[in-house]
Amino acid sequence: CSPNLEQINHMLNLAFKENENYENLIFHSDQGWQYQHYSYQERLKEKKITQSISRKGNSLDNGLIEDYIYYYNNKRIKEKLKGLTPASYRSQSLLVG
């Protein structure tokens, strides 16, 4: 499921409920269309939040999250998935299907 603007606004609403002080806050994202949307950028400006966007095609800008996603999908073993990682489980189910 790809994020849409409604989901992104909901996420911002939840974040804004949790915190009142946004001074010196930097909000980093990839170059997804929703993060470049005028209404999204205006909401950040209203709270005086600095927006940071990754450079195109440069996963190093998102190094920490890229590492986490790799771990989450390829290293993390889930008991619910019969002791497999999500990637292994998905590969195995494709072979059977």
Automatic annotation (TrEMBL):
Highest rank taxon of the organism: Bacteria
InterPro entries: Integrase_cat-core, RNaseH-like_sf, RNaseH_sf, Transposase_IS3/IS150/IS904
GO BP terms, alphabetized: DNA integration
SUPFAM superfamilies found in the cross-reference section: Ribonuclease H-like
Molecular function terms from GO: nucleic acid binding
Integrase catalytic domain ranges (all copies): 6-59, 65-94
Protein name: Integrase catalytic domain-containing protein
